C-alpha cells in the first residue's frame, strides 16, 4: 500500500516535471527559432564579456595620454587610432562599454522597480489609489521627459550615479501601465479568490500570485527599455550633460570625437556603431522573448 502511494505521488510529480520541462523546451525552441534574437543575445554576451575583461584585453591604460600621437590614424599600436588627447580609442571603447551598460542596467532596474510598485498599487487597490497613479502617469506622459533629464543631469554635474537615477525615475510609466492592466484583470480570478478565502493577506497575494503572472511582460518591457535607456544616456552625454570625462561612455566618446571627425573618423564611428549595434541587439532579444512568452505587442 505504501509503495502504491509513493508510486502515485512520485509518478504524478514526474509527469508534472516532464510537462513543465516540455513546455520550457517548447518556449525555448520558439526563441531559438528566431535567428536575430539568438545572434543578438550572443553579441550582447560577447560585448559584456569583453567589457568586463577590459584590463586583460587592452594594450594601453584607459586614460593614458600620449601628446605625440594626437588624432593618430589606425596603426598596429592603436587599432582604432587615438583621440584629441592621444588616448587609445580601442581601449576607451572597451571600457566605455562597462559604464554605458551599467548606466542602462541601473536605469532599467530603477524604472522597473518604480513601475511595478505604482502599477501594482493602482491595479490591486483601485479607487483613489488608481486615480492618483493614473494622474501621475498622465503627468509624466505630458511633460517633455528629455528636457527634465537634461535639467536634472545639468544640475547634478553629470555624476555617474545621478544619470541612471534620472533616467529610471522618468521611464517607469510603460512598466506601470503593463502591471496595472495585468493585476487589475487577474485580481478577481478564481485562484486569487481561493487564496484570499484561506486567509492570504494582500501582500502575499500580490507577491506570490499576481506579480509572477505579470513577470514575463515586465521582462520583455525591461529588455526593450534597456536599449532606450542606453540611447537616452548616449544622447544626454552627446549634448554634454551626461557622464563626464575622463569616465568614458559611448555617448561622451562620440561627443568628444564628432568635432574631429575629418581628422579621426574612427574615433567617432566606433562608439556610434557600438551604440547602434547594442541597442538593435536588445530590441531583437526583446522580440525573441515576446515570441517565446506569447506576449502580444
Can you give a write-up of this model?
The chain is mainly alpha-helical and 297 residues long. The protein has one domain (33-292): MetI-like (MetI-like fold, Orthogonal Bundle), CATH 1.10.3720.10. It is 74% helix and 0% strand. It is built from 12 helices and no strands. It has helices spanning 2-32, 35-52, 54-57, 89-125, 127-142, 145-155, 162-169, 173-186, 190-197, 202-238, 250-257, 265-292. The termini are far apart.
What structural class do you assign from the helix and strand content? mainly alpha
Counted beta strands: 0
Assigned CATH architecture: Orthogonal Bundle
Helix content: over 70%
Index terms:
12 helices; disordered N terminus; elongated; 297 residues; MetI-like fold; mainly alpha
In short:
With 297 residues, this protein is an all-alpha fold. α1 packs antiparallel against α12, α4 runs parallel beside α7 and α11 packs antiparallel against α12.
List the helices and strands and how they pair.
Layout: H1 2-32, H2 35-52, H3 54-57, H4 89-125, H5 127-142, H6 145-155, H7 162-169, H8 173-186, H9 190-197, H10 202-238, H11 250-257, H12 265-292
Helix pairs in contact: 1-12, 2-4, 2-12, 4-5, 4-7, 4-8, 4-10, 4-12, 8-10, 9-10, 10-11, 10-12, 11-12
Amino acid at each position: 500500500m505504501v509503495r502504491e502511494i509513493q508510486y502515485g505521488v512520485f509518478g504524478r510529480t514526474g509527469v508534472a516535471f516532464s510537462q513543465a520541462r516540455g513546455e520550457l523546451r517548447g518556449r525555448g525552441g520558439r526563441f531559438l527559432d528566431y535567428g536575430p534574437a539568438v545572434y543578438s543575445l550572443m553579441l550582447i554576451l560577447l560585448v559584456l564579456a569583453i567589457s568586463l575583461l577590459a584590463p586583460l584585453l587592452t594594450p594601453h591604460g584607459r586614460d593614458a595620454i600620449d601628446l605625440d600621437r594626437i588624432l593618430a590614424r589606425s596603426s598596429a599600436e592603436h587599432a582604432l587610432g587615438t583621440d584629441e588627447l592621444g588616448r587609445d580609442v580601442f581601449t576607451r571603447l572597451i571600457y566605455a562599454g562597462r559604464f554605458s551598460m551599467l548606466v542602462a542596467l541601473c536605469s532599467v532596474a530603477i524604472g522597473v522597480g518604480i513601475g511595478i510598485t505604482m502599477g501594482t498599487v493602482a491595479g490591486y487597490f483601485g479607487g483613489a489609489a488608481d486615480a492618483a497613479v493614473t494622474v501621475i502617469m498622465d503627468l509624466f506622459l505630458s511633460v517633455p521627459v528629455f528636457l527634465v533629464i537634461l535639467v536634472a543631469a545639468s544640475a547634478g554635474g553629470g555624476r555617474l550615479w545621478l544619470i541612471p537615477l534620472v533616467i529610471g525615475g522618468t521611464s517607469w510609466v510603460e512598466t506601470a501601465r503593463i502591471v496595472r492592466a495585468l493585476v487589475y484583470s487577474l485580481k478577481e480570478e478564481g485562484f486569487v479568490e481561493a487564496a484570499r478565502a484561506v486567509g492570504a493577506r494582500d501582500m502575499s497575494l500580490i507577491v506570490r500570485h499576481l506579480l509572477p503572472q505579470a513577470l514575463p511582460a515586465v521582462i520583455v518591457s525591461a529588455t526593450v527599455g534597456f536599449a532606450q535607456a542606453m540611447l537616452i544616456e548616449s544622447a544626454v552625454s552627446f549634448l554634454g550633460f551626461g557622464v563626464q570625462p575622463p569616465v568614458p561612455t559611448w555617448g561622451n566618446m562620440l561627443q568628444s570625437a564628432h568635432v574631429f571627425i575629418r581628422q579621426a573618423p574612427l574615433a567617432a564611428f566606433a562608439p556610434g556603431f557600438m551604440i547602434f549595434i547594442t541597442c538593435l541587439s536588445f530590441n531583437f532579444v526583446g522580440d525573441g522573448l515576446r515570441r517565446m512568452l506569447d506576449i502580444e505587442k
